[in-house]
Amino acid sequence: MPIKMMAASRKRPGLTKAEYFRYIEHYHGTIAREEPSKIVTYIQYHVIDGAFGVLSDKTHQQVAERDCVVELAFENFRDMIMALDNPGGQPSKAAQDGKFFADEPRNIVLMAEEEEIAVPTPMPKFNPGLGFVSGVGAVKVLQYLMRDDEVFREDYYRYWHEAHAAAMEATPAMRSQLRRCVLNRRCRLSDNDFEARRHFGMVDMPIYDAVAAYWFDTMEQVGAFRDYNEALQAYPKRFADWSRSFFLYTRPVAIVRDRPGVAPAA
Question: What are phi and psi of 129, to 5 degrees?
Fold first, then answer.
């Protein structure tokens, strides 16, 4: 199973969102394509909107606002580490470029392995030909789920599965409009993430044990996620700290997809 790195960042001071999106896609993305590495897939998720915490909170409990999430997939952990920094300890061009567009100390990074979650309607009925392409959608929702401090990690994943099933049952629109669902589970290798911290310039970042991803055909359909999210939060077994959790509505931008000569990501 491929391993991937997910980095959620926000724009550095002084940049508009338009400037930030243009830089990260066209300039930083070009650096990633030109550098020698074994990146299988590199997707940027440009944030359209999002919500942080819950309405009952009077103030945010941490700095959570994000402008982009980048997702890098590799065949194995070694390839990932080699991509983060060049041999000899010299920072890669991508690492050196981060300071020009990102508020680096506030980056949130997750090394993860994917768990595919079956959905009732993975393909829209209006155009069966779309079935030739998988894992591509117009809108992707990324839900960062902070584990409750009193819940063991193994129980946390089990409770999420139970809550997800209950929330899907309670929201017909989500059942009919969700095209794909993936639970990105924090890899144990994340406990040894010095290279990732150095590459992304992180300082005391919050730790997330899971990021759930949901694909939709259009932006208009993400309202189904809102209903689903409320049902998820209402599940009686507490597994997440919702005040420190957040979700993002994003537009996927492919920088590197299934690079020739390297096995495609799952």
Answer: -60, -20
